[in-house]
Automatic annotation (TrEMBL):
A single GO cellular-component term on record: cytoplasm
TM helices/strands, residue ranges: none
Presence of the UniProt keyword Cell division in the record: no
Organism ancestry: Bacteria, Pseudomonadati, Pseudomonadota, Alphaproteobacteria, Hyphomicrobiales
Protein known as: Aldehyde dehydrogenase
Cross-referenced SUPFAM superfamilies: ALDH-like
GO MF term list: aldehyde dehydrogenase (NAD+) activity
Keywords assigned: NAD, Oxidoreductase
Origin species: Neorhizobium galegae bv. officinalis
Amino acid sequence: MNAIANTTDADRLGTLLAAQRTAFLRDGAPSLAQRRADLVRFRAALIGHRKAIEDAINADFGHRSRYETAIMEVGGVAEGTKYLIRNLRKFMARTRRHVALHMRMGKARIEYQPLGVVGVMSPWNYPVNLALMPVATAIAAGNRVMLKPSEFTPATNTLLAKMFGEIFSEDQFAMVTGDATVGAAFTALPFDHLVFTGSTAVGRAVMKAAGDNLVPVTLELGGKSPVIVAKGHSLDQAAASIAFGKLLNAGQTCIAPDYALVREDDVESFVEVYDRKVASFYADGPTSEHYTSIINERHHARLRGLLEDAGAKGARIVEVGNRPGDASRRPNTLAPTVVLGVTDTMRIAHEEIFGPVLPIFPYRDIGDAIAYVNARARPLALYYFGADDQDRRKVLSRTTSGNVTINGTIMHIAQDDLPFGGVGPSGMGAYHGVEGFRTLSHAKGIYEQGRWNLSNLLHAPFRQPIDIILNMMLR
């Protein structure tokens, strides 16, 4: 049915959008049964192509752990889509609203209707999950969808186009591919909503372009997500979870722990435990089949540049785990690394790392840790390891982040009933949960006036009963 619209022609993009909008206006909002059927087919296609997806992403990355792909890409979208299917009737249901006393003969309600055509721009780091969960949410809300994935994952893009071209017509779900020129043309289209996942810098440009058409946007942008290890908490448990979150997809995860704040007396012990945990995760070191490569030479060079800058300015660079030197045997592979003695003069203290590198900062008390986090841009995620005590409550109440996981990392994104999104420079808006459905729906407020009503008393010529009504309103 469908094909990749592989073009740099902005007029072609406009034609696709016009065709989808025409189809939406012609067919109207799809029923609950239609939406469920679409999501069931969507999910079945995803699961049925699991091995092909693993192969495609592996090709795009040079090496990507098949289990990471199965868990975070295929499994994540399969579970998220199942959640939408199970909850769709509840999400679509009209909701009653309060009617003022003097208008009680009438009724008020909200009905959720599709917006129309939703644009989705997805990044390369999770080329299935971060593309398809917004698409599935848009379909659940009854919309048509145009997807522009990253040009850095061509094998995955080709596979997705084939998969969904077999089950959706182009006027319901279309894919367009291309470089930054196509991306710029895509963001300039007059969508009914635009969902973008990527860097803060590109997010600013996307928002400016969308603003020319007054297109509302959802931005999931990332940033430097901190992890705080409280005094007295098990370093063994914290290090294992931080190693999981930092090294998943070789750190190329928007909600990966960017840096760790550890009590000053525990820093050296933490590094030793972290080293052991990394070694236990990857017995064959950075050439392990379960350890992922950096997406391309450019990003690998950027990470090397961060480490070289930090080292030149006095930081202590410690490669951890088994045989870290073996990283050079596989293209674009970087060994797990910790960085100590980081100062504000170093790029690594300010730039989102997006790789398997963990700066560790010492702190004296929880107030110092909170102050450090709050002195920086609000992050997409925050992680806290510690008991349910006053320090934890201070961290939760006095810091602001998109989401939080306590005594773990990453897994808040797997909670399908929680909204997922950033705040400030880490993003705006949310998808996942009912919040995602509502983001991509129009909440239409409807007032149905009763046969008997007081509206006839609210216009000229005004008579005495209006004073009674005004007295009720102004009590």
